[in-house]
Amino acid sequence: MADLDQLKTTLLAQIDDAGTPDAIEAIRVAALGKSGSVTGLLKTLGGMTPDERQAQGPRIHGLREAVTAALSEKKVALESVALDARLATERLDMTLPVDAPLMGTVHPVSQVMDELAEVFADMGFAVATGPEIEDDWHNFTALNIPETHPARAMHDTFYLAGEHERPMVLRTHTSPVQIRTMMAQKPPIRIIAPGRTYRSDSDATHTPMFHQVEGLVIDEGITLAHLKWTLETFLKAFFERDDVVLRLRPSYFPFTEPSAEVDVGYSVVKGKRVIGGSEGWMEVLGSGMVHPKVIAACGLDPTEWQGFAFGCGIDRLAMLKYGMDDLRAFFDGDIRWLKHYGFSALDVPTLSGGVGA
Ligand code: DAH
């Protein structure tokens, strides 16, 4: 059957010449489709004598297999050329804004940090930062926690391996930023320092990495009254309620004297604790008047300069304000949690618009 060989040559040449996936598809339909040329040959098998079929069957099936293989090989080749061309020409600018429904969300911790910056900026505080890998002098010694002090053990510190000039730690609190700020700038000082902190601790209310915000004011004639007013103004603005009540309890921190733990009052509404009122008390932060030894360690004269400081867990603030009850979910990266508790990137907290977003 000369025309079978002829057909094979023609089809394979056409396939070879095809320049697009569409052209390949057209050849496939013309050869192997319902009324295609190869299909037509296959149909003739039914009308043949057994001898003819034995001779022609393998040839016709061989033709179909050769055409099918050539088609798919060419298709793959054309697709890879098309993909290379697209890769060479298409570019995505990842910095361009995208449609709002496709956008990720701002994590509640980031949102609360922005809210804190907004509330404190209104009171004249700047935002200060410090390293997360800290030396033990800034993290402990300068804060009046000498080597033998039991507070070092209480902090469940992560120490860095290896030889260093001073032992290095992952900072256990944001208080070392107080030291860095006092050493870097002259008073008057008013800063908050939000950031990551680390302790070797993990359960429903503790994670090895967590967030704190530190506050520091250094000036002449600063008293406990300034501290109380600042904290009250901050917590009322942050929780957006005028009925926020504070309770200062005497406490102990090595870097403050006197020291106070601050509780906020809550009420129970439909079985849930809501900040405001004074049905019960929740501890929210530690504070006090900066210890003269800490001021002196930074090279300032404590008879000239006084101040107050406070430290507060940001994750806990977020939980109290936005109603989450498991801290660990903050760091799971579960997209459903982030969609539910996250904020729109366009929801920038402002005092005039309400810092609650
Ligand atoms: N650094 C303390 C902690 O992590 C919190 C703290 C308490 C900070 C009192 C302060 C302060 O500045 O005055 O537990």
Overview features:
about 350 residues, alpha+beta, BirA Bifunctional Protein, domain 2, 8-stranded mixed β-sheet, two-stranded antiparallel ribbon, 10 strands, about 40% helix, elongated, binds 3,4-dihydroxyphenylalanine
Outline the structure in words:
This protein is an alpha+beta fold and 357 residues long. The chain has two domains: 2-89; 108-344, BirA Bifunctional Protein, domain 2 (2-Layer Sandwich). The protein is 41% helix and 21% strand. The chain contains twelve helices and ten strands. It has helices spanning 2-17, 21-32, 37-44, 50-89, 108-121, 136-139, 150-154, 176-184, 224-239, 292-297, 314-322, 335-341, and strands at residues 126-127, 133-135, 168-170, 189-198, 209-219, 246-253, 256-269, 272-275, 280-290, 306-313. The strands form two sheets. Strands 1, 4, 5, 6, 7, 8, 9 and 10 form an eight-stranded mixed β-sheet that branches. It has a two-stranded antiparallel sheet with strand order 2-3. A hairpin with a 2-residue loop joins strand 7 (256-269) and strand 8 (272-275). The longest helix is centred in the first third of the chain and has 40 residues, at 50-89. It is elongated and about 115 Å long. It starts with a helix and ends in a 16-residue tail after the last helix. Bound molecules: 3,4-dihydroxyphenylalanine. Residues 173, 175, 214, 253, 256, 286-288, 309-311 line the site of 3,4-dihydroxyphenylalanine (DAH). The site of 3,4-dihydroxyphenylalanine has 11 residues, from strand 9 and strand 10.
